[in-house]
Design brief:
- This protein has helices at residues 43-54, 73-82, 85-100, 117-128, 169-181, 209-227; strands at residues 6-12, 15-22, 29-35, 58-62, 105-115, 132-138, 156-161, 186-191.
- It is of the alpha/beta class.
- The protein has one domain (6-227): Rossmann fold.
- Strand 7 (156-161), helix 5 and strand 8 form a beta-alpha-beta unit.
């Protein structure tokens, strides 16, 4: 399917961020920041933006690696661990501002949706800005990203895998307990029989079509309910 979006730049502090923006055919809709896995801003993430746009959302995926991508897991791990968190924070805040300032975005808040590394960064974005009004965390993990929940207000949909070696169900449960203790409204699901990255249809070794369809439906319902 042809790409429906375009590469864009946006202000990120004293720097310029870059990313991929997809707009709905309706002309406007709620905004969602889409945050990458450790591979970088690859086609699978652009596809998520395009899918969100077809569902009526304005979707922006900031390129947190600034143009670098990989298909090698060792290289991806190094890229994730080398990510400069302060710069990533500026990119996240810049992406939120760019999305809210776009003519097509409706409403005073945006959603943040992320996968793996991006799931943790979606939570991180909500700790940085009350303008993030909903978070979808797909099996999020990043050991260098610490969450200050003292001002966290966004509801969280957490979607995890029972066979996940990176984020086992015990870790998902601990995160949910931590969020609830901070007064955050949560909806967590651990899907049985699937692995980490079950949403990524570019990885047939772990992709699970039935679970991905179910999780996508829950994601859309959550974002529509929380963002209007």
């Amino acid at each position: 399917m042809a790409r429906g979006g375009q590469d864009v730049t946006f202000d990120a502090g004293d720097d310029q961020g870059r990313g991929y923006l997809a707009l709905p055919a309706s002309g406007d809709g709620p905004g969602v920041i889409v945050l990458q896995e450790w591979w970088g801003l690859v086609d699978a993430i652009r596809d998520v933006c395009d899918r969100l746009a077809r569902e009526g959302f304005v979707a922006l995926a900031p390129d947190l690696y600034r143009g670098t991508t990989t298909t090698d897991s060792d290289a991806a791990s190094r890229l994730m661990m080398d990510l400069e968190i302060p710069r990533a924070a500026r990119d996240l805040e810049g992406a939120v501002s760019a999305l809210l300032g776009h003519r097509a975005t409706r409403g005073p808040k945006v959603g943040a949706l992320g996968f793996c590394m991006g799931g943790q960064l979606a939570l991180f974005a909500a700790t940085r800005s009350a303008r993030v009004g909903a978070v979808v965390d797909f099996y999020g993990v990043h050991p260098n990203v610490q969450l200050d929940l003292s001002s966290f207000t966004a509801p969280v949909l957490g979607l995890f895998a029972a066979n996940d070696a990176f984020v086992p169900p015990e870790a998902a449960g601990a995160l949910e307990s931590e969020l609830r203790a901070a007064g955050v409204r949560t909806e967590f699901t651990v899907y049985e029989g699937v692995d980490h990255a079950f949403m990524n249809d570019a990885r047939p070794d772990v992709y699970d079509a039935a679970t991905a369809e179910r999780a996508w439906g829950e994601t859309l319902a959550f974002l529509r309910r929380e963002l209007g």
